[in-house]
């Protein structure tokens, strides 16, 4: 036989629910705060769920101190939305602090991009999947180029990587 709930039980339950809701809201608000000075920005990585090298690039960035959210998605609409033309494509598209990072771009180039913040640049790309780029780690080292690109898909050389670790 069930008993009606007492006023105390109802009030206790209500207060518990409100406390839980406030705790959840404050955690969500904390995640929305701007990145503290000196902290590394968050990465949102869009990738195909079947690609392993993308995960290796995320691990490389994690080792450099970055936190990432990895989304397994159909990349075609993402690339179109962020002005990544077919000649600029690689295997994953990352969003970081208002810029696009396409493929296996080294962390040093991303740091420079976020420091200089060029207005006419949408992002950086390492087209294709060069064997020596971070996350690919092919041996022996093969030089590769990082390109900056704008909304029209026009590119300029951002960096040339001619030796390991450079």
Kindly describe this structure.
With 166 residues, this protein is an alpha/beta fold. The protein has a single domain (40-161), classed as Glutaredoxin, CATH 3.40.30.10. The chain is built from four helices and seven strands; from the N terminus they run H-E-H-E-H-E-E-H-E-E-E. It has a seven-stranded mixed beta sheet with strand order 2-1-3-4-5-6-7, sandwiched between helices. Strand 4 (99-102), helix 4 (107-116) and strand 5 (123-125) form a beta-alpha-beta unit. The chain is globular, with a radius of gyration of 22 Å. The protein starts with 6 loop residues before the first helix and ends in a 5-residue tail after the last strand.
- In helices, the fraction of residues equals 25-40%
Radius of gyration: 22 Å
Number of helices: 4
Distance between the termini: 75 Å
Structural class estimated from helices and strands: alpha/beta
Side-by-side strand order of the widest sheet: 2-1-3-4-5-6-7
The major β-sheet equals: 7 strands, mixed
State the fourth-level CATH superfamily: Glutaredoxin
Task: Sketch the topology as an H/E string, one letter per element.
Answer: HEHEHEEHEEE
Could you tell me the number of beta strands? 7
How is this fold's topology laid out?
Blueprint: H1 7-32, E1 43-47, H2 52-63, E2 68-72, H3 75-81, E3 92-96, E4 99-102, H4 107-116, E5 123-125, E6 144-149, E7 155-161
Parallel strand pairs: 1-2, 4-5
Antiparallel strand pairs: 1-3, 3-4, 5-6, 6-7
């Amino acid at each position: 036989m069930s008993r009606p709930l007492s006023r105390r039980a109802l009030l206790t339950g209500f207060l518990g629910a409100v406390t839980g809701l406030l705790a959840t809201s404050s955690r969500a608000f904390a995640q929305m705060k701007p990145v503290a000075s000196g902290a590394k920005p968050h990465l949102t990585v869009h990738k195909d769920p079947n690609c392993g090298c993308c995960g290796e690039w995320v691990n490389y960035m994690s080792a450099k101190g970055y936190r990432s959210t990895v989304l397994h998605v159909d990349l075609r609409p993402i690339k179109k939305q962020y002005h990544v033309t077919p000649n600029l494509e690689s295997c994953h598209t990352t969003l970081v602090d208002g810029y696009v990072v396409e493929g296996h771009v080294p962390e040093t180039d991303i740091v420079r991009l976020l420091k200089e913040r060029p207005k006419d640049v949408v992002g950086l790309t390492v087209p294709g999947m060069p064997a020596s780029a971070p996350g690919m780690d092919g041996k022996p080292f093969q030089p590769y180029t990082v390109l900056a690109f704008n909304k029209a898909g026009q590119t300029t050389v951002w960096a040339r990587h001619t030796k390991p670790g450079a």
